[in-house]
Design brief:
This protein is of the alpha+beta class and about 650 residues long. Helix content is about 40%, strand content about 15%. The chain contains 19 helices and 14 strands. A five-stranded antiparallel beta sheet has the order 4-5-6-7-8. Strands 3-2-9 form a three-stranded antiparallel beta sheet. A two-stranded antiparallel ribbon has the order 1-14. A hairpin with a 3-residue loop joins strand 7 and strand 8.
């Protein structure tokens, strides 16, 4: 059912601000006062695009809610099961068998190994003069990824991609201000002379600046529905909804230098939430509401504000934003569905929307393709039914089902649930024995094969998801024969190849765009010199430039004014494609002088060590610039001492 949005008319809206007048200097000479006709026209255009996008994206919410429920591994209890739990909390009731969750864990583990390698993004220079700058660029962005915890956002994005079909990330540039320690010398003059004392004090300054990555909740995403998920840069707009509060926005306005405005007009609004941002997710149905619903329920103590963020490709002349007749990218923010608080050109040097989407199941047509867990949802339902029906049948079978003649037995004694009970017969049964007084009703467990059938279902889920049991660290246990080495290696290699294909798609769809934006943002926004640790694949080249004993290198914005190429990882993981044939080749090359002259035996050894799991092979390399001890015979020592080339240590 489509959304029906009912809002105030333009006259009512502008009337709400009639008695409010704040002295704002709006950008580009525009009249963005909420009481103006131009503001209403701009607000209407932003709202129309956001609401149309929300209408299309909301069609996927029912399916996404089913995945949310699967991943919470919880089914709301029926009235009957509630009574069972109230009576005895230890008795099992219906659950979601967490096999889809297990598949998701295996997929995320592979993606983490494939993309969390150090460094996450690799660069190389286009021309010879760009070589040094590309090396420093790689180390600078490596530092940014560590400081802003980029892998955490990547993990959430990959999780969204497998769960909902799309994982959305937004690169940004963050500046953190704080106290910086500064050393100074205090010179004191006295009768005894002049003395110097070193002191330290703290001054306000820029503590850190660099790239960061934020994930966008798919439920709050506002894409252009006319383009597919792998072509979002071709759309006319793209946006998302942020959940913030009035105090944060007011602080942002005071520090924005005029980029944020009109926030004070929100003060008089009682409800600052967006009608497009209702809490549709069921991620936390068992353990309370999400952070979104909690915020909506705390309006008496907090002041939440929903902000629609929208990048639009437009012709300024048609929007009355300027005289330009060719498309430009602009950025708008609409707070509380009512007040425009940002209106500026999106002057990114890369010329793209600062958003990227990972969509491993894309079909080239859909804006929200099906997720991998959605493919497994039908089998997950069958698995849950098999397991829960067996549990229900066992729960029923273990209860005593008795046929009793109430004329012959005291029924109240029979109802006593305590062990060791005494059941008294009624007087007519005295002296006739007890064998026919009570009889157990025969129970046949028709669900006893359900558990075996569920194992068959999980095998199909493994085949379909690509998350083979070997990837989850599980060795096949079925069958009387032992698992051969060749069978295990072949099965694992096939599973890795399937997952590597997914990782390659994510690399081209998402990581390539993010890596490019990180580099461009560094060139565009970096303002101060920073120091990076000399490490990684460029360590030898950088030490030859900065000195053999150098451990860190200074990098200024001028050093990064280069042309570069981003190296996209191929989706493989360390050791994923490794073969023990490399060990045999290493031995053959090391023992054959002709091959040893043609191949770099040291690099081959480092490759083998890395594939076997060693992450810090460089730490064990010998420093060739360091003086190595030399062993001599006694005669050589005497001869060199006579020449004056060596002296005893006590004479040094």
């Amino acid at each position: 059912m489509p959304y029906i949005v009912q809002g105030d008319s333009a006259e009512v809206r502008m009337g709400n601000y009639a008695r409010l007048n704040f002295d704002y200097d709006y950008p580009y000479g525009l009249n963005l006062d909420p009481k103006s006709d131009f503001h209403e026209s701009l607000r209407s255009k932003i709202w129309q695009r956001a609401s149309n996008s929300r209408k299309e994206i909301s069609k996927r919410f029912p399916s996404w809610n089913e995945i949310d429920q699967v991943l919470t591994t919880y089914i709301p209890l029926s009235d009957k099961e509630k009574r069972i739990k109230d009576k005895d909390s230890r008795k099992p009731v219906s659950i979601i068998f967490p096999y889809s969750y297990s598949n998701l864990e295996s997929l995320l583990t592979y993606m983490s190994l494939a993309f969390f390698q150090d460094p996450i993004f690799q660069y190389e220079g286009v021309e010879d003069s760009d070589t040094l700058g590309a090396m420093l660029m790689e180390l600078v962005i490596r530092l940014h990824c560590i400081k802003t915890k980029v892998p955490l956002a990547l993990h959430t994005i990959f999780r969204d991609a497998f769960s909902y079909g799309v994982g959305i990330g937004m690169p940004g540039w963050v500046r953190r201000y704080g106290k910086i320690p500064v050393r100074s010398k205090i010179v004191t003059e006295s009768e005894l002379g002049t003395s110097e004392q070193e002191d330290i004090h703290f001054v306000d300054g820029l503590v850190f600046e660099g790239n960061d990555l934020s994930n966008i909740d798919p439920y709050l995403w506002l894409p252009d529905p006319s383009v597919s998920s792998d072509r979002i840069q071709d759309g006319e707009f793209i946006g998302w909804i942020d959940r913030d509060n009035y105090m944060n926005l007011l602080s942002e306005e005071s520090n924005s230098g005029g980029d944020v405005f009109n926030v004070k007009y929100l003060r008089g609004k009682t409800d600052k939430r967006s009608s497009l941002a209702t809490d549709e997710s069921l991620r936390e149905i068992r353990h309370g509401g999400t952070s979104k619903s909690m915020r909506q329920g705390m309006t008496s103590t907090t002041n939440p504000v929903d902000v629609i963020n929208l990048y639009v490709t437009l012709i300024p002349k048609e929007w009355n934003l300027g005289d330009g007749e060719y498309p430009e990218k602009w950025f708008f923010r609409l707070a509380a569905d009512d007040v425009v608080i940002t209106c500026q050109k999106a002057n990114y040097y890369h010329g793209m929307y600062p958003v990227a989407v990972a969509s491993p199941e894309y079909d080239g047509y859909s804006i929200t393709p099906i997720g991998r867990l959605e493919v497994l949802y039908g089998l997950q339902g069958v698995l849950d039914w098999l397991f829960n029906s067996h549990v229900a049948n066992v729960r029923k079978a273990i209860n005593d089902m008795l046929i009793v003649d109430p004329y012959l037995v005291n029924i109240n004694d029979l109802k006593d649930p305590e062990p060791g009970k005494l059941i008294r017969l009624r007087r007519p049964a005295w002296g006739h024995g007890v064998d026919k007084v009570v009889q157990q009703l025969g129970v046949t467990d028709i669900t006893r094969l359900n558990i075996a059938d569920s194992a068959y279902i999980t095998q199909w889920m493994d085949r379909i998801s690509g998350a083979d049991q070997s990837m989850a660290g599980i060795i096949r246990q079925t069958g009387p024969e032992r698992l051969t080495r060749g069978e295990f290696q072949g099965t694992r290699s096939s599973a890795i190849s399937r997952l590597q294909r997914i990782a390659m798609l994510i690399g081209y769809q998402f990581m390539q765009d993010i890596g490019t934006m990180f580099a461009v943002h560094t060139q565009q926004y970096m303002t101060k010199e920073t120091f990076v640790k000399i490490t990684g694949r460029y360590e030898d080249q950088l030490k030859s430039i900065f000195g053999p004993e150098a451990t860190r290198a200074p990098v200024s914005p001028l050093d990064l004014a280069i042309s570069y190429d981003l190296i996209v990882r191929d989706g493989s993981i360390p050791g994923g494609n490794f073969s023990e044939a490399w060990l045999q080749l290493f031995q053959t090359i090391g023992s054959t002088p002709e091959l040893l002259a043609q191949f770099d035996i040291t690099r081959i050894f480092m490759y083998i060590a890395q594939q076997l799991g060693a992450k810090n092979v460089e730490d064990f390399k010998r420093n060739v610039n360091r003086i190595q001890p030399t062993q001599m015979s006694d005669e050589q020592v005497v001869r060199e001492a006579e020449r004056g080339n060596i002296v005893p240590t006590e004479e040094i």
